[in-house]
Amino acid sequence: MSDKVAIRRLATGVPGLDEIVGGGFPEFSLNLITGSPGSGKTTLAHQIMFALANRDMPALFFTMLGEPPLKMLRYQQQFSFFDQDKIGESIRFVDLSDHLATGNLDQVLSRITKEVEAFSPALVFVDSFRTVVQETPHQVEAIISQQSFIQKLGIQLSGWQATTFLIGEFLTDRGSHPVLTVADGLLSLEQSVHRNSVVRKMQVIKMRGQATRPGMHTFRITGDGIEIFPAALVRGDTGEALETAKQLRNMTRLATGVPRLDEMLGGGLPSGYSLLVAGPSGSGKTILATAFLKAGVLQGEPGVIVAFEQTPSQSWNRTLDDMIRAGQIGLINTRSPDLSIDEIVQHLTKLIHQMKATRVVIDSLSGFELAVAPTFREDFRESLFRMVAVLSGLGVTVLMTSELEDRYIDLRFSPYGSAFLTDAIIVQRYIEVESCLQRVMSVVKVRASVHSTEIRRFEITDDGIVIGNPVSDFEGILGGQPTRTKASRMADRGETS
Amino acid sequence: MRIALAHRAAGALDAHAVAEATIGTWRQVDSLLAPVIGTQGVDVIFRRALYLTSKGFPWLASGEEYVESAVLLAGLKARLEERCADDVAQAGYSLLVCFTELLTTLIGEALTERLLAPVWDFPSLSSELEIES
Hints:
The complex is a heterodimer.
Chain A: E1 9-10, H1 17-21, E2 25-26, E3 30-35, H2 41-52, E4 59-63, H3 69-76, E5 91-95, H4 97-101, H5 105-119, E6 123-127, H6 130-135, H7 139-159, E7 163-168, H8 179-182, E8 185-194, E9 197-207, E10 217-222, E11 225-229, H9 239-251, E12 253-254, H10 261-264, E13 269-270, E14 274-279, H11 285-298, E15 303-307, H12 312-315, H13 318-325, E16 329-332, H14 341-355, E17 359-363, H15 365-371, H16 374-377, H17 380-394, E18 397-403, E19 424-433, E20 436-446, E21 455-461, E22 464-470, E23 474-475, E24 483-484, H18 486-492
Parallel strand pairs in A: 3-7, 3-8, 4-5, 4-6, 6-7, 14-18, 14-19, 15-16, 15-17, 17-18
Antiparallel strand pairs in A: 1-2, 8-9, 9-10, 10-11, 12-13, 19-20, 20-21, 21-22, 23-24
Helix pairs in contact in A: 5-7, 14-17
Chain B: H1 2-9, H2 15-56, H3 69-81, H4 85-107, H5 109-120, H6 123-132
């Protein structure tokens, strides 16, 4: 039997928060929620309080000189989590501004202690803490007094078995606040401005005794409060899990829905693989993606499409539209100036689970890059890598399209260097033959599988993509201006080599 | 609200008792709200309510705008006591209603009712009514 103390974690139910702090806030811990004005500190504190407070776990919310309590109550009521029935019963607001105005921190502490003794709260919130630091006169004495105040407060509240949240602007340009060392947990909220887009981000700087999710996590404030999109975590699979995944991949191959393409891929696309379809505008990438989803639907496998085309309704073909309307294909078509890849990954993961989807299409990476907030574009490649890894961990088969400007001097697959991320690559190109544009397609890569290396012509008809024979009568196709091979010229003249 | 005032006045007909009841009710409102929204928060709404109510009852206006709350309240009580009981009851009622309405526009009806519930809660009054019936 272990004699170690078991720390209960208070799961808040705030979407994404428990995931990033490592399962919830440790009971009786002293936590700081810090951030600049407007970063969402009070909203987060209220959301945590309304989620956790009940008759057995009452909460005390102390307000200081920061946001006037009248305004706070007025605006916080707009959020759906604000449950008025809890006020007075399990939640009590206490305004400390009068005590604070005297500048005597001992009086403030004494009032807090008195209220805590009277109400015996399991949760204590103090908002906003910076005011304690700034409003006191005589700065030198104040600093000593504040340190002592914070330490006393921390000790008293943990002695009273209360989980405490101090809300304020603790991180300043002049350095960190002494309370940071006393705190058990530290959440930092910020609004990151890049060009004309503003993105909200949250970081768990510290959470004693438990593993937190590293990184900056984007969040959004809606009518329901704060929703955090934890930075996608690539699961460290055990060797056993990897082997299982490998076995699964080797077992099944998926039909792409394009006749002859399965043959080119060496018998279909291995299940769980990620496939990159690269090609210039109009080459038929979305049509190929639609065929891939339809092939799944025909076998009773739902799919999900993440569409970033500018005018989706126009660019989608009817087949895709019908499948979406029939509920066979889930659609994610998010547009907002603060969109992060993690938010998309979260929506996608949820929809995949909800629909039990096995096939996922991202159309297109180019549109995706344009859709995310500018601040994420610098890290687009890394985020893409994590997204592919997360999807791979879910066991779904992914088809991503990538618009590629045709360059006839080199063979490129993707502007994001994402080619190495994917297990398979199909490249589509235009070639000029006898003053006409023709489409060709080739399978460039299928990891751990034999596949065709032929370059084949294909056409787009009303029935979809029709792949023709290998282009054996021309050479120099990748240069864009193929010339007839010697053999075909001789054949035309009726000669034999 | 009217019942609360009547109960506090305990059927008294003199202006002094009605004024006491009005101020007493106000003090209770203040004691319930000040810990939540702060004394400043209560004070600012009260002054606004007094200003608005004075339009219907010009004799309520103090003329001294920047005095402390305690002085303001003492002045109000003195002015109430100068009037007849009916005037005091009407003005006191209007003032408290106006205050409640202002608070409602800021924090909503439900929360206002919840915070001020003890003002309207008279166990002794309800038990008296029960006995009478």
